[in-house]
Amino acid sequence: MSGASSARGLLCEGCDAAYWNEARLRCAVCALPLASARRGMQRRDGAEAERGRHRCETCLKTPPAFDATLALADYRAPLDGLARGLKFRARLALGEEFARRLALATEDWLDAAESAANGVTDVPDLIVPVPLSRERLIERGYNQAWLIAKPLARALGTRADATLLRRTLHTAPQSKLDRETRRRNVGRAFALRRTDLRGLHLGVVDDVMTSGATLDALARTLKAAGARRVTNFVALRTPKD
C-alpha cells in the first residue's frame, strides 16, 4: 500500500484503481461474486427470468430474509487489511471512508436503469449497524459497523440508530465457524428495542459479510416486526461463503 496517496491517503493510486473499481458481477441478494460465463442467471421464460437475473443458485432456491446486498469489493488483499485495521486496530477514520464509498455506490445503484432488478429501489428509512454483544463492545471499545453506518446515513440523507437492535447472546466469532454452525450461532442472538417497524425499509450495515448468517438472522428479526424491506450495506464480501 505504499506509493502515491489516494484521495484519503489509505491506498496507493494503483491499489485504489485496481480493487475499489474492480468490475464484479454479484448476486443482487447476497452479493456473492458470480461466474461471468453463467452471469448468475437462471434461464427461464418471461417475467420469471427477469426476476431471477443476477442471483446465485442458493438465493434462487432458498432466499434469505434480506432482500438485497450492496458490497464494495471482495475481502482480499489489500482491502482486507483496511477492514482489520478498522475492526482491531482502532483506525476509526476507515469507517468514514467505507461509508463514503458505500454512499457513492448506493447513488450509482439507484440511478442505474435496472435499479429495480438489482434489488435497491429506495433509500432506507433507517440505517442500523450489526450490534456487538456487551462483552465484545467493552473489549473493543467501539462498534466498527456503527462507524460506517452513522456517516453512511448522513450521506444518504436518512436516519441512523445504534440502539434499535441489540445482541442478546455473546457468540463465538463467526470467522472461526463453518456455515451451518454460523447459522445456529446467531439464530436467536438478536432482539429489538422497538417492535413496530411496519412499512419501513431498513438498511443494515456491517464491515465484512461472510456467509450472511448474521445478516439473515437480523433480517428475520426486523421483518418479524413488520419491516417492508431489508437491504445490507457491507464494505467487503468474501468471495466464497
Automatic annotation (TrEMBL):
InterPro entries: ComF/GntX_DNA_util-trans, PRTase-like, PRTase_dom. SUPFAM superfamilies: PRTase-like. It comes from the Bacteria. CDD domains: PRTases_typeI. Belongs to the ComF/GntX family. PANTHER family: DNA UTILIZATION PROTEIN YHGH (PTHR47505:SF1). This is ComF family protein. It comes from Paraburkholderia tropica.
